[in-house]
Amino acid sequence: MNALSSRLPLARVLLLAATLCVGPAFARGPAPVVAPGHAGIVGLHEAYLSPGYWIARQAEPDRVILDRASIAAQNARMRQLDGSIHDLRALPATLARDFVREKIDAISHLPPRTLYDVQGNEVGAAQLRAISDNLALDRIPASRPLQYGLVVHRAALRAVPTGLRVFSGRGDTDIDRFQESALFPGDAVAVLHESADGDWLFVASERYVAWIEKRFVGIGDATQVFGYGAHGPYRVITGATAFTAYTPEEPRLSRLQLDMGVRVPVLADWPPLQPVNGQQGHAGHVIQLPARNDDGSLALLPALLPRSQDSSDDYLPLTPRNLVTQAFKFLGERYGWGHAYDTRDCSGFVSEVYRSFGVLLPRNTSAQAVSPALDRLAFGDKDGKARRDAAVDALQVGDLVYIPGHVMLTLGHADGMAWMIHDTSGGSWFGADGKRVPAHLNGVSVTPLQPMMASDTASYVDRITNIQRIRPRTAK
């Protein structure tokens, strides 16, 4: 398998997401009817919204699930076995036209359905044609030298080179059909192509291939790019987000958002009394961040990360206590399809939680759910209620539960049910009157698993496709 194996095309990803709202042709019996609890959410008690409640239910909350050496081995296995993970260093120094065209064709689709803009206006054929023309497919040279860069600002990854947000229906402006993911400051990319208007780059990162605005990438040589942050000391962002100090002297690094798990190098030898962008650094950590010069080249500059921001000098130990604590730091954050709204979606949520421990996961649910690098328990149409119920009863904190288009992280068990924390755009369950109650949760939420319904006829338990476990390979 080559270094940039094709991922699922956008249309397939959208189909998977859509299946959340469509029941299968079979059903295994009704989900349990559970009374509404706190804030009207099924079965919820206010205490369940505290990480301390779930930590207290752990027999060994400080047990190390994987130590640093085991995590390094797990990540090496992920890079070796999972085709959705891309080895940028293995790319050829010269890119052939067919190679570049294949990667663009794998993601840059214009959906056949009618699309609407944020004002509810139909996106016309002329607009779509202009977007298609901006792919500049006819300008892909027979060969081009490979370029590397570092991302300098949290930036959207797009299916096509446009900032136009498009939607499947009028008034539904949360799920932008051109939005794919996001990259973060310090992420390395390989540049494969440029848009016709010169404003976008088609890039490969370790976990994704898509379009990014050129203004968010600083171009450097391989030594600069892969050497950035290769050696400590570091700060690892352990809050949901952290921000650099405001600085009018260096606007490129002012109030820069750093998301959970981002690791930045520390300039340990910075002179104590020398200001950093106009501010003495005793109340912060002097870190190094990438920036883009006016000519597009990469610069590595000092910045201040205030000590008030949630960060650590290394990745956190992977323990039940820390898993719950890290997940709850996102509680209530707005759902952001494809990392829109400067937030994240369901697979981004679990990825960032595990990234704070240094664990690498694929970006999309479709890849996470079947990754051969994890301890996977798969389910099919022939798996009956007994096997599914037994698996749910055996869930442990941190286990990832997948249904089509969605992933949830296990907190534990209470009231005879498994409880999940997940970043979800919807959610529903049956009320006492037998009717399905839709809940526009639209954010990181705590819910039980068993009562949740994917449709009128299928529960989430019915729809489980995989359970993935991040734990020692010998554990069963």
From TrEMBL:
Pfam families on file = NLPC_P60, SH3_6
Entries under InterPro entries matching the protein: NLP_P60_dom (IPR000064), P60_peptidase_YkfC (IPR027017), Papain-like_cys_pep_sf (IPR038765), SH3b1_dom (IPR039439)
One example of the protein's molecular function in GO is: cysteine-type peptidase activity
Signal peptide start-end:
1-27
Indicate yes or no for the key word Hydrolase: yes
Where in the numbering of this chain does the NlpC/P60 domain appear? 317-471
Where, if anywhere, are coiled coils annotated? Answer: none
Which GO terms of type biological process are on file?
proteolysis
Query: Could you identify this protein by its name?
Result: NlpC-P60 family protein
Q: Which organism is it from?
A: Stenotrophomonas daejeonensis
